[in-house]
């Protein structure tokens, strides 16, 4: 397997009022293509910041972030937006679907940024909804779906443009155990059957068990590095 | 077009609020259509004024009569091509609310001066021979169902007969049309010879002269020459171009343009805040959704355009509905403005104002959406 995500000496500082807060300190990380990685750690440890840097939602203060061979820390805001559209599918804790749009319209959103024809978009949307088992719920609005179904729609939206990696921030944080397990099984299936690289932030050790690799972030460093530093 | 469902969904996120905002914009543009349409109708009469024609009225007031004898002197001036005259008859038909724009004129002179009025020659000839004859505009004929051969009684609020009555009977002998301007097809022209003979007072006078000049560039000089003829006489005159005369005539009713602008200014000023506030509120509620769009790969500029498009769709649809309602109601103003259809330039101007309104009210929220930081927005900061 080859490295799909590489972080070298990444440092991230935020300004909170008059203070500068260093959230990540000189972090190095490599994730192989086809990995299913669970990032765990206490609140405020920097795991979501790490996920945002990998997903191109934020830029490091220092260091290098390379995804699929591209230095995304060097991209401008506009370039980064286009890069995200091509390479990353996002899944959030609270689904973040458009409430006025049907499931199929929500799933279609990333495809609006491509040059696909209407018919091609429709076909891809139908395939994505079938993969997550919601082919028969295409015309339903989010308010007409259960939490688990909404998260499946969100997964279909993340998948539909065939991204290089799926980035999930607490994807089961708002679901009951049984539904959470169904969603995690689905992610596991996508990883195993379709070879999708998945990076998931979670608090839930049971959710992390579905991943093939675990990373622990503590005080802005990966746990091994933190121990070495101590 | 592929983004339209997204724009539409954002717009109707809060149905009730969007409905009432749309309604308030619709009503504002209904008002715009009616008022601006009225204004345009009055302006159209002024714009249609001929550059070759001057109007000579009494220097004291245009309601003061002038001697008929002045005609020959004016006609004799160099540069003058043709002279006609008219008077204000001030009459209504059956009910004071049914006001008739009626003018005693010399048939030959008047219709020679206004070639845009199309009247068949045989009808003009009949009119010249028929003392009680009148020629009416086709708009008036349609309004009251009058036709050639009908006898029409009018009550004049100014002119009485020697027997003390103010009721006048006329025979419709001709119907004219103005293909260029339907607003001019509502006049009622009386044979001056009959009027002058039958009235109890004011004989030998007319209301105003209309003078056609040979060269429009001599309008000022010819006007001055006419006024100079009667300087220091009992009946001093004031000569203006037809356009100036019509503008001053309309201003007797008030500065319509100013009134319309003032009312619409107040309406749109209020609308600006109402729509602007609604759009800002809508944006605040959708910060996480807009952040998600950016996460999916929508650029800052793309999100700006989406919010602006929402505002544009709302304003243009509401304005189109308001202007359509104005067009449907505009025929009710026919008696006031003389035209049936809402002028197209008003519709065009309305859509232009709607686009401007959308840009002004949409730009602040769109700008804010563009500058939205994804990480902060998703974290609810």
Quick synopsis:
Chain A is of the alpha/beta class. Chain A has helices at 47-54, 77-87, 103-108, 118-131, 147-159, 177-194, 205-208, 223-229, and strands spanning 3-16, 19-32, 36-40, 62-67, 70-71, 88-91, 165-169, 197-201, 213-218, 221-222. Chain B is built from 15 helices and twelve strands.
Provide structural commentary.
- The complex is a heterodimer of chains A (230) and B (381).
- By secondary structure, chain A is an alpha/beta fold.
- In chain A, 35% of the residues lie in helices and 27% in strands.
- Chain A has 8 helices and 10 strands.
- Chain A has helices at residues 47-54, 77-87, 103-108, 118-131, 147-159, 177-194, 205-208, 223-229; strands at residues 3-16, 19-32, 36-40, 62-67, 70-71, 88-91, 165-169, 197-201, 213-218, 221-222.
- A 6-stranded mixed sheet of chain A has the order 6-7-8-3-9-10. In chain A, strands 2-1-4-5 form a 4-stranded antiparallel sheet.
- In chain A, β4 and β5 form a beta hairpin.
- In chain A, α4 (118-131) crosses α5 and α5 (147-159) runs parallel beside α6 (177-194).
- Chain A starts with a strand and ends with a helix.
- The mean pLDDT of chain A is 89.
- By secondary structure, chain B is of the alpha+beta class.
- Chain B has 2 domains: 4-45 and 255-379, no CATH class; 49-251, no CATH class.
- Chain B has helices at 4-11, 15-47, 70-75, 107-113, 121-129, 138-144, 192-198, 219-229, 242-251, 256-285, 287-296, 300-329, 334-337, 344-370, 374-378; strands at residues 53-58, 66-67, 80-86, 91-92, 99-105, 133-137, 151-156, 167-176, 187-191, 205-206, 208-213, 237-241.
- Chain B is elongated and about 90 Å long.
- The two termini of chain B are 33 Å apart.
- Chain A binds chain B through residues 52, 55, 57-58, 77-78, 81-86, 90, 92, 96, 98-101, 105, 109-110, 112-113, 118, 157, and chain B through 2-3, 5-6, 9-10, 12-13, 288-289, 292-302, 374-375, 378.
């Amino acid at each position: 397997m080859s490295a799909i995500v590489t972080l070298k000496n990444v440092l991230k500082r935020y300004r909170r009022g008059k203070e500068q807060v260093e959230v990540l300190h000189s972090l190095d990380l490599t994730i192989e293509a086809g990995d299913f990685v669970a990032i765990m750690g206490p609140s405020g440890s920097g795991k979501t910041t790490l996920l945002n840097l990998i997903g191109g939602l934020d830029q490091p203060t220092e260091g290098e972030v390379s995804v699929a061979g591209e230095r995304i820390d060097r991209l401008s805001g506009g370039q980064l937006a286009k890069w995200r559209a091509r390479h990353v599918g996002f899944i959030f804790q609270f689904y973040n679907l458009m409430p006025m749009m049907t499931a199929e319209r929500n799933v279609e959103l990333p495809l609006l940024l491509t040059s696909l024809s209407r018919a091609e978009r429709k076909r891809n949307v139908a395939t994505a909804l079938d993969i997550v088992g919601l082919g028969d719920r295409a015309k339903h609005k989010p308010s007409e779906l259960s939490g688990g179904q909404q998260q499946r729609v969100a997964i279909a939206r993340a998948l539909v443009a065939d991204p290089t990696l799926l980035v999930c921030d607490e994807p089961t944080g708002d679901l009951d155990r049984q539904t959470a397990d169904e969603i995690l099984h689905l992610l596991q299936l996508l990883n195993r059957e379709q070879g999708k690289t998945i990076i998931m932030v979670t608090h839930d050790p049971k959710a992390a068990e579905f991943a093939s690799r675990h990373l622990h972030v503590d005080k802005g460093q990966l746990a091994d590095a933190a121990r070495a530093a101590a | 077009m592929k983004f339209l469902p997204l724009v539409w969904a954002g717009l109707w996120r809060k149905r009730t609020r969007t409905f009432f905002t749309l309604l308030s914009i619709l009503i504002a543009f209904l008002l715009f259509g009616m008022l601006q349409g009225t204004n345009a109708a009055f302006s159209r009469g002024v714009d249609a004024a001929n550059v070759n024609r001057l109007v000579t009225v009494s220097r004291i007031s245009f309601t003061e009569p002038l001697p008929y004898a002045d005609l020959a002197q004016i006609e004799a001036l160099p540069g003058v091509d043709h002279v006609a005259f008219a008077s204000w008859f001030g009459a209504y038909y059956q009910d004071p609310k049914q006001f008739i724009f009626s003018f005693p004129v010399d048939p030959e002179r008047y219709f020679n001066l206004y070639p845009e009025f199309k009247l068949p020659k045989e009808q003009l000839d009949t009119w010249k021979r028929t003392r009680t004859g009148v020629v009416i505009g086709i708009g008036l004929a349609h309004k009251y169902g009058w036709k050639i051969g009908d006898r029409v009684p009018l009550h004049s609020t100014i002119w009485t007969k020697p027997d003390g009555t103010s009721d006048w009977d006329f025979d419709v002998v001709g119907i004219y049309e103005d293909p260029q301007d339907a607003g001019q097809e509502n006049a009622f022209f009386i044979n001056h010879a009959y009027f002058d003979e039958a009235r109890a007072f004011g004989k030998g006078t007319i209301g105003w002269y209309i003078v056609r000049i040979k060269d429009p560039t001599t309008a000022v000089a010819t006007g001055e020459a006419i006024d100079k003829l009667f300087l220091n006489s009992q009946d001093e005159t004031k000569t203006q171009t037809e356009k100036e005369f019509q503008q001053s005539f309309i201003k007797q009713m008030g500065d319509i343009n100013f009134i319309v602008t003032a009312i619409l200014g107040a309406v749109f000023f209020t609308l600006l805040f109402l729509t602007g506030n609604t759009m800002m509120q809508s944006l605040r509620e959708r910060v996480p959704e807009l952040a998600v769009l950016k996460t999916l790969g929508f650029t800052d500029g793309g999100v700006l355009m989406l919010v602006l498009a929402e505002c544009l769709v709302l304003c243009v649809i509401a304005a189109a509905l308001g202007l359509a309602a104005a067009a449907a109601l505009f025929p009710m103003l026919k008696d006031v403005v003389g035209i049936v259809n809402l002028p197209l330039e008003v519709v065009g101007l309305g859509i232009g104002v709607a686009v401007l309104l959308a840009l002004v009210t949409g730009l602040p929220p769109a700008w804010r959406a563009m500058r939205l930081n994804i990480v902060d927005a998703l974290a609810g900061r």
